[in-house]
Amino acid sequence: MTKARPQAPGSRPRTSARVAAVQALFQAEQMQVSAERVIDEFVRHRLGAEPGSGFEDGRAPDANVPLFGRIVRTATAQQDTLDAVLADTLSADWPMERLDPVLRALLRAGAAELWMSDGPPARVVINEYLDIAHGFFDGDIPGMANGVLDRIAHRLRTAEFQGG
User: How far apart are the C-alpha atoms of 2 and 102, rounded to whole Å?
Assistant: First the structure.
């Protein structure tokens, strides 16, 4: 079950950037527009402080804008590759097309960050997207997202999981 809006992450600019990236990827897919157009719209209208508005209004006032842009650009530039990795990770009963569009955007954003070899540790990425998933979904979906991202992390960042 999809929730109406994620919970506010407080003053966590990197988390806010990730939530905004999920929302931007969802919007780009739904509206069939380019990543650059959505990034521009978010930077101009949804990121940054505006008096009297916040996360509950669809804004991410403290988002780390460079991270937001990097996630969205990586997810869209590498979408075919990342979608193939996701498809290999998902069960045959749940192909990409069957996933809730918000969950698909979340998994693409998480996979994009795991794709970035110079990004934060894989466990940090997985935990961040698990928190975000709990903001968007009830029930078993956050656990499923956690499992998918964990398997992708082990595949893309093998060295981080060796030896302990």
Answer: 8
- pTM above threshold 0.70: yes
Under CATH, domain 13-156 is a member of which superfamily? NusB-like (1.10.940.10)
For residue 147, what are its two tokens?
Answer: 């499992």
Residue 47 and residue 13 in contact, taking contact as beta carbons nearer than 8 Å:
no
- The closest of 35, 105, 39 to 76, measured between CA atoms, is 35
Contacts of 71 (CB under 8 A, 6+ apart): 17, 18, 21, 109, 112, 113
CA distance 147 to 85: 14
Q: By CB neighbour count within 10 A (0-12 exposed, 13-18 middle, 19+ buried), where does 108 fall?
A: buried
CA dihedral for 119, 74, 87, 24, sign (positive or negative): positive
Q: Which two tokens stand for residue 12?
A: 């966590």
- Chain CA centroid to CA 77, Å: 15
Q: Where are the domains of the chain?
A: 13-156
**Residue 44, both tokens:** 């101009």
Beta bridge partners of 60: 47
Tens digit of pLDDT for each residue in 88-146?
Answer: 999 888 889 899 999 999 999 999 999 998 989 999 999 999 999 999 999 999 999 99
